[in-house]
Amino acid sequence: MTPGYMAGKAVLVTGAAGGIGAAVVRRFRSEGARVAVADRDVTGIDAEAHLPGDLLDPAYADALPGAAYDALGSLDIVVNYAGVITRGSVTSTTDADWALSLGVNVEAPFRVCRSAIPIMAKAGGGAIVNVSSCWGVRPGPNHAVYCMTKAAIASLTQCMGMDHAHQGIRINAVCPNEVNTPMLRTGFANRGFDPDTAVAELGRTVPLGRIAEPEDIADVVFFLASDAARYMCGSLVEVNGGKPVG
Ligand SMILES: NC(=O)c1ccc[n+]([C@@H]2O[C@H](COP(=O)([O-])OP(=O)(O)OC[C@H]3O[C@@H](n4cnc5c(N)ncnc54)[C@H](O)[C@@H]3O)[C@@H](O)[C@H]2O)c1
User: Per the domain annotation, does 92 fall within a domain?
Assistant: First the structure.
């Protein structure tokens, strides 16, 4: 892809302060896109528009695509990259874990897509990229509700990809395996492991020899949003270094 490939495109990225979301923002801006960043705190993020807020607030999530459109003057691409991970089996899942997981990982992207699709349809099309997980397409141990939320957004993506293709809107999802981000590293630290050592050990279990860096995932998000993926609708793209789950 030539430099400036995304010149003039208007992009909304949620989870923009997160490990992968920040890499997604940098990738789009490096290709000339104008980016509106959404997260609870977007202080210090280089972007064309800043839209801080809590995605658990339905009014904020509903209004986000319109706010991005107003700030950027158009809206071509939405990347729903905010997410939370709660651990444990069903029997150790609290009501709060349930509400948080469903709220951030499923309800928020549902609300953002529901508001973004009519805006994009009116403009003749667009692209949405959601984040599922390898645990959204196959089960994983000891993260029952997290896996279920990732399966839910995978299914929603497949259905929306089918339902809105006729409007010129392509909706796809990435399904990463382990990525070297605060989400993963904090999990190790919380369980008493040194994150650097744990990440290196985990890397040895991946056929490619290392776990993913945020940029490895951001490149695939960028591809799915670009015209290079113009015939992809409702796809779930696993990005796993050769290490599938299960
Ligand atoms: N890191 C991995 O190994 C991995 C693997 C597969 C899938 N994923 C998925 O990628 C996504 C991002 O993961 P990450 O590793 O970059 O995590 P991260 O924790 O670094 O980033 C997540 C971002 O989402 C934001 N967010 C969470 N709740 C929010 C809320 N209520 N309102 C607004 N923003 C909120 C956080 O502030 C944070 O900036 C998640 O959906 C995760 O499930 C991550």
Answer: yes
Residue 69 annotated to the active site: no
One domain for residues 88 and 160 = yes
State the residue range of the domain holding 121.
10-177+213-237
In angstroms, the CA 229 to CA 233 distance is 9
Tell me, yes or no, whether 161 and 188 share the same domain: no
Nearest to 112 by CA among 85, 136, 79: 79
Q: Which of 60, 69, 81, 146 is catalytic?
A: 146
Residue to mutate, 12, 14, 20, 81, ligand 1, most ligand atoms under 8 Å from C-beta: 20
In CATH, what number is assigned to the domain containing residue 47?
3.40.50.720
pTM of the complete model: 0.96
Which ranges of 124-237 does DSSP label H, i.e. alpha helix?
134-137, 144-163, 182-190, 195-203, 214-225
Q: Quick one: 157 and 192 in the same domain?
A: no
Measured in Å, residue 84 CA sits from the centre of ligand 1 at 5
**Which tens digits make up the pLDDT trace of 136-189?**
999 999 999 999 999 999 999 999 999 999 999 999 999 999 999 988 899 899
Write the DSSP symbol of residue 165.
G
Report which protein residue has its CA nearest ligand 1's atom 41.
Answer: 83
Please say if the pLDDT value at position 20 is more than 80. yes
**Domain match, 106 and 205 both:** no
